[in-house]
Structures are given as C-alpha cells and as structure tokens.
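Dig into these lines:

——
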Amino acid sequence: NIKGHRTLMLIDAHSHWLPDEIITNAHFFHKGWADIEAQLKMMDATGIDLAVLSYPTTDAHLKLGSISEVAHIYNDNVSKILKAYPKRFIGAAVLPVDNSIDMLEELKRVTAQLGFKAISLASSYNGVYLDDKMFLPIYQEAQKMNIPIFVHSQIVNPIGYERVKDPLLTPVVEYIFDTTISAGKLLMSDILRQYSKVKFIFAHFGGAICYLKQRFDSTYQMLRGMNFVKDLQGLPSDYFKNIYVDTSGDTTKANFLLALELMGPKHILWGSDWPAKQEVSAGIKVVNDLDISQDDKQNILGGNLEKIFVL
C-alpha cells in the first residue's frame, strides 16, 4: 500500500526458479530454488501480483556440456510454470549463446510456442560481453518484437576473477563490476544509441553506473577535449538514463536516490531477487518510504513493467 492506495499491479522484476536438472549440475544452488509453491506463497503474502522469472546464471553448463543444453532444459521447464500459472509469472528465456545461429531460432521458438515474453542474458560469457556482434541479430529482433532483455550478472569467471578468487569479494565486487563493464561496453560500441528502442533491464541497479555517473560524464568530456575518445554524440549519462535497472532486493535508500538521479522513476523496476534474498517486504517498504510522488512509487512497483509488457 502507498498511503492507503493500492498500486495498479505489484510486479517483481527480478525473481528466479530453476529446474532440478540444473540445480543438481550446478554449484551453490539448492532445492529451494525449485520451489515454485514457496514463491507463490510469498507473493500472496506480500501482495505481488506478477513476477518475472529470469535465469540467475549458473555454472551448470560446465557439467551438462553446453549453454545450449541448459537453455533448452530451462526454457522447456519454465514454460510449464507459465502454462500452469499464466497470470502469475512472465518468463525470460535463456538463449544458446554458444551457438549464434541457434539463438534466433530459440527466440522464435520460446515466444511463438512456449509463451515467453522476455530474454534473459548474462552480463558476459567467458569474457565476451553483450557488445559482441553475435548479439546484434537478437537486438534487432528484440527491437522489432518489443521484447525486453533482462541482464543478470555473470557468476562464472566475472571480471577480476583471474586475479582475485574470494567467496565474498567475488559476488560483492566482481559480479557488480561485470555488470558495470557490460553496460559500459554497450555504451562504447554505440549499441545503446543504435538500438535505442531495445529495453535493456540491468539487475542490481546496473552495477555501479549510477554511482559513476559524474565520473563517466566529466572524464568523457575531458578526453573528448583531447580527442582521446571517440565522439559518442552525447554524454554517457544521456544513454545510461535510457536503460532500465531493477532493484534486486536492495533496501539502501542511497542506491535508489542515485538511480532516481540518473534514470528517473520511469526506468527503475522493483525486484525482489527471490529466493536469493527473502526480505521481500523490506524491499517494497523502501520504495514506499522514498520522498517521491505516489505515481512514481506506483511506476517503480509495477507500473513501469506494465508498460514494458503492455499488460
């Protein structure tokens, strides 16, 4: 509730579910990640009407043999949830990024046959970021079909992992900076300008880009004055403000304020990061407690995603 008013729809932009076959072939994940009934119970208890199911990025492909195999296992199993609970979940499909020819075919399959309405990508793949030319046909199709792309941090060898392997520093720092570099490479490759209608939705407030807004702009202007960096035809922040970020269960007011300054309330999506984070009500409360308008709160808590998915 927002001062006694119910949002038109409370939508979770960031939640996960995994089939047993992926869990048993991956590190870290446990059976709780396969409990859709627990998620539905949580959603009912917290008033969540609808949740996006996206891939949390696992290392299951190392045992299963390929990302293509993981993609088919994941998409086929999630499609059963979408069919069973069509009014509660939206699916973001995994693409076989290890086979660029199959990516478009799988995108067509999952949207035409399996009921998926979004794409789920990792911030990078073995050091290959989302500015790679193999992704351009996907962006063209996503722009044409108005399909949003949810970007989750890479957890397998993220940037910095070759120098620092630490159970706390890797997820806290390296995951976040892999996401930051991913967004940065989309900027520097002109993809954010050339594919301006593609709705990129970056998890965890887009890594550190909100914090780095001033440094991006001031450093770019300095380097342009020396003709040391190419002409982006605008400031970095002009392009970053056009992407979307989700809150990923964050309850830190300062992070919301940074995102509000860069993206504005229409490009921030509330997300729980369930089941990794389970203090779901606290994540909703921090939005309610922000010193912004009632309409802005409603947009963050669901209105923005309603528009993206044309619900």
In short: Residues 169-188 form the longest helix (20 residues). The first strand starts at residue 11 and ends at 15.
